[in-house]
Specification:
19% of the residues lie in helices and 31% in strands. By secondary structure, the protein is α+β, with helices and mostly antiparallel strands.
Length: 188
Amino acid sequence: MTTGLNAQSADAGAAPHNTKSSVAPTGVSADQTDATPGTVVQARRRDPLPEQSDAAAFERARAYRAADGHCASLGIELVDIGLGRATLRMQVAAQHMNFHGACHGGAMFSLADTAFGMAANAYGVMAVGIDAHITYQAAARLGDVLEARAHEVSRSRRLAIYRVDMTRTSAAGETALVSSFTGTVYIK
């Protein structure tokens, strides 16, 4: 899962991380001395809340995306990120194809799961996936553009539920729903 990428938090007796400002592209601010370079640092529930705005959520998502090699290998792009929501896109290429000549279900799951993780972690508080379910309604073909739109269904202090709908747009411009995904996160 993409949720909780390389997340670290302050030790029990140490001062909490400064999470008031948006995340730097590397995901580590200069005053976070206990973090190693290149890691994404997120607050936990006991830390002060990070900035809660769509702009801050987008910057956090950029840092998460930069730290996730799987996203890069699949060609997943950020389209829109906000608090509790994320839209990501991926064009189906030869590396995504299965032996039936359609987009591999694992590639589609990865796109949906990444949108789920981005939406759940948009608040800057570590949220890790504990359950996920996907259905496939239609196939995607080489050259199709897949778009996964995640939105928050409910969120409590410890759990949040997300739904992701994935559509495909063909070269001819036809759009269809190809997959539905639901996921639950534990908020640390």
